[in-house]
Protein backbone atom coordinates (compact mmCIF):
# COMPACT_ATOMS: atom_id res chain seq x y z
CA UNK A 1 0.00 0.00 0.00
CA UNK A 2 2.84 2.36 0.89
CA UNK A 3 4.53 1.68 -2.45
CA UNK A 4 1.27 2.42 -4.26
CA UNK A 5 0.92 5.77 -2.46
CA UNK A 6 4.50 6.66 -3.32
CA UNK A 7 3.80 5.75 -6.95
CA UNK A 8 0.71 8.04 -7.01
CA UNK A 9 2.71 10.84 -5.43
CA UNK A 10 5.39 10.48 -8.11
CA UNK A 11 2.77 10.61 -10.84
CA UNK A 12 1.26 13.77 -9.34
CA UNK A 13 4.70 15.34 -9.07
CA UNK A 14 5.46 14.59 -12.72
CA UNK A 15 2.07 15.91 -13.85
CA UNK A 16 2.45 19.06 -11.74
CA UNK A 17 5.89 19.81 -13.14
CA UNK A 18 4.76 19.11 -16.69
CA UNK A 19 1.94 21.62 -16.27
CA UNK A 20 4.18 24.20 -14.62
CA UNK A 21 6.69 23.95 -17.48
CA UNK A 22 4.05 24.15 -20.22
CA UNK A 23 4.25 27.34 -22.27
CA UNK A 24 0.97 28.50 -23.81
CA UNK A 25 0.85 31.27 -26.42
CA UNK A 26 -2.26 33.39 -25.99
CA UNK A 27 -3.04 35.87 -28.76
CA UNK A 28 -5.29 38.87 -28.51
CA UNK A 29 -6.07 42.19 -30.18
CA UNK A 30 -6.09 45.84 -29.17
CA UNK A 31 -9.57 46.13 -27.67
CA UNK A 32 -9.56 48.25 -24.51
CA UNK A 33 -10.62 47.89 -21.78
CA UNK A 34 -10.58 44.10 -22.25
CA UNK A 35 -7.12 43.64 -23.79
CA UNK A 36 -4.46 46.05 -25.02
CA UNK A 37 -0.72 46.63 -24.93
CA UNK A 38 0.76 49.22 -22.60
CA UNK A 39 4.47 49.65 -21.77
CA UNK A 40 5.33 46.30 -23.39
CA UNK A 41 2.76 44.45 -21.28
CA UNK A 42 -0.66 43.13 -22.24
CA UNK A 43 -3.20 44.80 -19.97
CA UNK A 44 -6.98 44.92 -19.62
CA UNK A 45 -9.86 43.23 -17.83
CA UNK A 46 -9.60 39.90 -19.62
CA UNK A 47 -5.82 39.98 -20.01
CA UNK A 48 -5.41 40.27 -16.23
CA UNK A 49 -8.17 37.73 -15.63
CA UNK A 50 -6.47 35.15 -17.85
CA UNK A 51 -3.04 36.00 -16.44
CA UNK A 52 -4.32 35.20 -12.94
CA UNK A 53 -6.11 32.11 -14.24
CA UNK A 54 -2.88 30.77 -15.75
CA UNK A 55 -1.00 31.42 -12.52
CA UNK A 56 -3.59 29.48 -10.53
CA UNK A 57 -3.22 26.38 -12.70
CA UNK A 58 0.58 26.74 -12.99
CA UNK A 59 0.64 27.47 -16.73
CA UNK A 60 3.26 29.73 -18.31
CA UNK A 61 1.01 31.85 -20.52
CA UNK A 62 2.73 34.26 -22.94
CA UNK A 63 0.39 36.96 -24.28
CA UNK A 64 0.87 38.65 -27.64
CA UNK A 65 -1.17 41.51 -29.16
CA UNK A 66 -1.71 41.19 -32.93
CA UNK A 67 -4.24 42.33 -35.53
CA UNK A 68 -7.33 40.21 -34.93
CA UNK A 69 -7.09 38.11 -38.10
CA UNK A 70 -3.51 37.02 -37.29
CA UNK A 71 -4.37 36.35 -33.66
CA UNK A 72 -7.35 34.23 -34.67
CA UNK A 73 -5.38 32.26 -37.27
CA UNK A 74 -2.36 31.66 -35.02
CA UNK A 75 -4.56 30.08 -32.37
CA UNK A 76 -5.95 27.67 -34.94
CA UNK A 77 -2.50 26.63 -36.17
CA UNK A 78 -0.58 26.08 -32.91
CA UNK A 79 -1.54 23.33 -30.46
CA UNK A 80 -0.54 25.07 -27.22
CA UNK A 81 -2.23 28.34 -28.02
CA UNK A 82 -5.45 30.29 -27.72
CA UNK A 83 -7.07 33.61 -28.55
CA UNK A 84 -9.13 36.05 -26.46
CA UNK A 85 -11.46 37.94 -26.05
CA UNK A 86 -13.30 35.75 -28.56
CA UNK A 87 -17.05 35.90 -29.09
CA UNK A 88 -18.49 32.38 -29.10
CA UNK A 89 -20.84 31.88 -32.03
CA UNK A 90 -22.44 28.98 -33.87
CA UNK A 91 -20.07 29.48 -36.81
CA UNK A 92 -17.01 29.30 -34.55
CA UNK A 93 -18.16 26.54 -32.21
CA UNK A 94 -16.27 23.70 -33.91
CA UNK A 95 -13.03 25.68 -34.34
CA UNK A 96 -11.85 25.76 -30.71
CA UNK A 97 -12.05 24.41 -27.19
CA UNK A 98 -13.91 27.07 -25.21
CA UNK A 99 -13.14 28.37 -21.71
CA UNK A 100 -15.47 30.98 -20.30
CA UNK A 101 -17.36 33.14 -20.44
CA UNK A 102 -14.91 35.85 -19.44
CA UNK A 103 -15.77 39.56 -19.12
CA UNK A 104 -18.28 40.64 -21.80
CA UNK A 105 -20.87 43.30 -22.54
CA UNK A 106 -23.74 43.73 -24.98
CA UNK A 107 -22.92 44.96 -28.48
CA UNK A 108 -24.56 48.08 -29.93
CA UNK A 109 -24.56 50.12 -33.11
CA UNK A 110 -23.47 53.71 -32.42
CA UNK A 111 -23.68 57.03 -34.23
CA UNK A 112 -21.81 60.27 -33.57
CA UNK A 113 -23.73 62.34 -31.06
CA UNK A 114 -25.86 64.94 -32.79
CA UNK A 115 -25.90 63.25 -36.23
CA UNK A 116 -29.66 63.02 -36.30
CA UNK A 117 -29.57 62.23 -40.03
CA UNK A 118 -27.97 58.88 -39.12
CA UNK A 119 -31.06 57.33 -37.60
CA UNK A 120 -31.45 53.55 -38.17
CA UNK A 121 -33.41 51.67 -35.54
CA UNK A 122 -32.64 48.17 -36.83
CA UNK A 123 -30.25 46.23 -39.06
CA UNK A 124 -32.30 46.69 -42.20
CA UNK A 125 -32.30 50.48 -41.89
CA UNK A 126 -28.58 50.45 -40.98
CA UNK A 127 -27.82 49.13 -44.48
CA UNK A 128 -28.41 52.67 -45.76
CA UNK A 129 -25.32 53.92 -43.91
CA UNK A 130 -21.58 53.21 -43.80
CA UNK A 131 -20.63 50.79 -41.02
CA UNK A 132 -17.09 50.02 -39.74
CA UNK A 133 -16.03 46.48 -38.72
CA UNK A 134 -12.74 44.78 -37.84
CA UNK A 135 -11.38 42.13 -40.22
CA UNK A 136 -12.26 38.54 -39.20
CA UNK A 137 -14.16 39.85 -36.18
CA UNK A 138 -17.40 38.18 -35.13
CA UNK A 139 -19.28 41.36 -36.08
CA UNK A 140 -17.92 41.13 -39.62
CA UNK A 141 -19.54 37.68 -39.94
CA UNK A 142 -22.65 38.90 -38.16
CA UNK A 143 -23.28 41.83 -40.50
CA UNK A 144 -22.42 39.88 -43.64
CA UNK A 145 -24.90 37.22 -42.54
CA UNK A 146 -27.52 39.96 -42.25
CA UNK A 147 -26.88 41.26 -45.78
CA UNK A 148 -24.21 43.94 -45.37
CA UNK A 149 -21.59 44.15 -48.14
CA UNK A 150 -18.13 45.60 -48.56
CA UNK A 151 -18.10 48.41 -51.08
CA UNK A 152 -21.73 49.17 -50.35
CA UNK A 153 -22.37 49.74 -46.65
CA UNK A 154 -19.47 48.13 -44.79
CA UNK A 155 -15.79 49.15 -44.43
CA UNK A 156 -13.10 46.93 -42.87
CA UNK A 157 -10.29 47.94 -40.48
CA UNK A 158 -7.48 46.12 -38.68
CA UNK A 159 -8.97 46.78 -35.21
CA UNK A 160 -12.34 47.74 -33.78
CA UNK A 161 -11.15 51.17 -32.63
CA UNK A 162 -9.15 52.09 -35.76
CA UNK A 163 -12.11 53.78 -37.54
CA UNK A 164 -12.71 56.18 -34.63
CA UNK A 165 -11.02 59.22 -36.30
CA UNK A 166 -13.10 58.69 -39.47
CA UNK A 167 -16.20 58.28 -37.33
CA UNK A 168 -15.48 61.58 -35.58
CA UNK A 169 -14.90 63.22 -38.99
CA UNK A 170 -18.32 61.92 -40.19
CA UNK A 171 -16.73 59.77 -42.91
CA UNK A 172 -17.96 56.63 -41.17
CA UNK A 173 -21.59 56.66 -40.04
CA UNK A 174 -21.79 53.72 -37.66
CA UNK A 175 -19.52 51.97 -35.18
CA UNK A 176 -20.12 48.65 -33.46
CA UNK A 177 -19.00 47.63 -30.00
CA UNK A 178 -20.04 47.56 -26.37
CA UNK A 179 -20.77 50.67 -24.33
CA UNK A 180 -17.84 49.76 -22.10
CA UNK A 181 -15.45 49.43 -25.04
CA UNK A 182 -16.55 52.61 -26.79
CA UNK A 183 -16.10 54.70 -23.66
CA UNK A 184 -12.56 53.33 -23.39
CA UNK A 185 -11.76 54.07 -27.07
CA UNK A 186 -12.97 57.65 -26.72
CA UNK A 187 -11.05 58.15 -23.47
CA UNK A 188 -7.84 56.82 -25.06
CA UNK A 189 -8.23 59.36 -27.87
CA UNK A 190 -8.88 62.19 -25.38
CA UNK A 191 -12.43 62.63 -26.63
CA UNK A 192 -15.57 63.17 -24.53
CA UNK A 193 -16.98 59.82 -23.44
CA UNK A 194 -20.45 60.86 -24.63
CA UNK A 195 -19.27 61.60 -28.19
CA UNK A 196 -21.17 58.56 -29.46
CA UNK A 197 -24.68 57.41 -28.70
CA UNK A 198 -26.16 53.90 -29.03
CA UNK A 199 -28.92 53.38 -31.58
CA UNK A 200 -29.91 49.76 -31.03
CA UNK A 201 -28.64 46.59 -29.41
CA UNK A 202 -27.30 43.60 -31.34
CA UNK A 203 -28.64 40.16 -30.53
CA UNK A 204 -27.35 36.62 -31.13
CA UNK A 205 -23.69 37.60 -30.64
CA UNK A 206 -22.06 35.35 -28.06
CA UNK A 207 -20.21 36.24 -24.87
CA UNK A 208 -16.41 36.57 -24.80
CA UNK A 209 -14.33 33.43 -24.20
CA UNK A 210 -10.79 32.15 -24.19
CA UNK A 211 -10.73 30.03 -27.36
CA UNK A 212 -8.10 27.27 -27.25
CA UNK A 213 -6.70 25.28 -30.16
CA UNK A 214 -8.70 22.12 -30.86
CA UNK A 215 -5.65 19.97 -30.01
CA UNK A 216 -5.04 21.75 -26.71
CA UNK A 217 -5.05 19.09 -23.95
CA UNK A 218 -8.62 18.49 -22.83
CA UNK A 219 -7.62 17.99 -19.19
CA UNK A 220 -5.88 21.38 -19.07
CA UNK A 221 -8.86 23.08 -20.71
CA UNK A 222 -11.13 21.47 -18.11
CA UNK A 223 -8.82 22.62 -15.32
CA UNK A 224 -8.90 26.18 -16.66
CA UNK A 225 -12.70 26.11 -16.84
CA UNK A 226 -13.04 24.85 -13.28
CA UNK A 227 -10.66 27.47 -11.91
CA UNK A 228 -12.40 30.23 -13.89
CA UNK A 229 -15.72 29.28 -12.30
CA UNK A 230 -14.09 29.51 -8.89
CA UNK A 231 -12.73 32.97 -9.74
CA UNK A 232 -16.20 34.06 -10.83
CA UNK A 233 -17.68 32.89 -7.51
CA UNK A 234 -14.92 34.73 -5.64
CA UNK A 235 -15.82 38.00 -7.39
CA UNK A 236 -12.53 38.30 -9.30
CA UNK A 237 -14.14 39.13 -12.66
CA UNK A 238 -16.39 41.85 -11.25
CA UNK A 239 -13.46 43.35 -9.30
CA UNK A 240 -11.35 43.54 -12.47
CA UNK A 241 -14.20 45.20 -14.38
CA UNK A 242 -14.44 47.83 -11.66
CA UNK A 243 -10.65 48.29 -11.59
CA UNK A 244 -10.21 48.88 -15.31
CA UNK A 245 -13.37 50.89 -15.99
CA UNK A 246 -12.69 53.26 -13.08
CA UNK A 247 -9.34 54.36 -14.55
TrEMBL record:
Keywords: Signal. SUPFAM superfamilies: Periplasmic binding protein-like II. Residues 1-20 form the signal peptide. Pfam families: SBP_bac_3. Residues 28-245 form the Solute-binding protein family 3/N-terminal domain. PANTHER family: PERIPLASMIC SUBSTRATE BINDING PROTEIN FAMILY 3 (PTHR38834), SOLUTE-BINDING PROTEIN FAMILY 3_N-TERMINAL DOMAIN-CONTAINING PROTEIN (PTHR38834:SF3). This is Transporter substrate-binding domain-containing protein. It comes from Rheinheimera maricola. The lineage of its organism: Bacteria, Pseudomonadati, Pseudomonadota, Gammaproteobacteria, Chromatiales.
